[in-house]
Amino acid sequence: MAGSRRRDDGEREGVVDGDWTGARNPRAVVEVAAREAEDDTRARTAGSAREAAARRVRRLHTAGPAGRFAYENGLSLAAFALFLLTFVGQVLTGAANYNAERRDHGAPPLSVPAYLRTGAFVEATAENWESEFLQMGIFVLLTAWLYQRGSSESKPIEEPTEVDQDPAESRGDRGAPGAVRRGGVALALYRHSLSLALLALFAISMTLHAAGGAREYSEEQRQHGGAAVTTLGYVATSRFWFESFQNWQSEFLSVGLLVVLTIWLREQGSPQSKPVAARTDDAE
């Protein structure tokens, strides 16, 4: 009866069957949306979803220490393993390509360790890392303030979400991170630590890109009778910004496509996707 009474109150404020466009009271909108989201979550985590969770728990409990560690950290382990595999591929093929260019200019080939110290390797590697960290850092910031109705990459508009909860309200929680319990400057930094870390990595990568690119550009200049450039001098060239923009635009394109595609498309079992049975206009 209480739930029915609250819904009646919401409907009197103009919230009828999930249509909030004519609602006069924002709190009524939020209350109705929260109840609907809770109902949807309960419906989607019953039956087969609970069985899937039970299978994961059984697998976890039957694994030894090493197996448990691998199971609990499988996503990061797989990602870093793929990084190492592709990074080795980049080094080996990059060294082969670099030495082919050196032979074309009558220069002796370099060993792989020597290639790792060249401006060509540093520039190529940092240039790609730079775009990735920029994309992730900007995306984290944008999702804190901007919305895309129906996308799993966006917060919902009407429903309350735990990421908007003021952490100061949890200072007494013994399980909260130390920065939350301490408050003050520690909490102020911790609130934005993810975006700060990603943007710091972007700044470091961009600096390496500029330094490595300056060395490579200067070597090419000397081969053609030109003068070497400083790192700041290289940053002032169109080549540096062309290298940056050609990577940045592809990263933002991929983010935009992911945001939009997750409105309509699904991937069963992935937290990056909405539930397969979710409505198109649901955020999750």
List the helices and strands and how they pair.
Elements (H helix, E strand, L loop, with lengths): L1 H11 L13 H19 L3 H15 L2 H8 L1 H31 L7 H4 L3 H27 L32 H5 L1 H8 L1 H31 L7 H5 L2 H27 L20
Helix pairs in contact: 1-2, 7-10, 7-12
* Global shape: elongated
- What is the CA-CA span between the terminal residues? 28 Å
Mean pLDDT: 89
> What's the Cα radius of gyration?
26 Å
Total count of strands: 0
Q: Return the string of H and E elements.
A: HHHHHHHHHHHH
Count of the domains = 3
Low-pLDDT runs: 1-12
In DSSP terms, counting alpha (H) and pi (I) runs of 4 or more, how many helices? Answer: 12
Structural class: mainly alpha
Portion of residues in helices?
A: 55-70%
Strand portion: under 5%
Largest sheet: none
Can you give a write-up of this model?
The protein is mainly α and 284 residues long. The protein has 12 helices and no strands. It has 3 domains: 63 residues, no CATH class; 43 residues; 167 residues, no CATH class. The protein is elongated, with a radius of gyration of 26 Å. It starts with a helix and ends in a 20-residue tail after the last helix. 14% of the residues are buried.
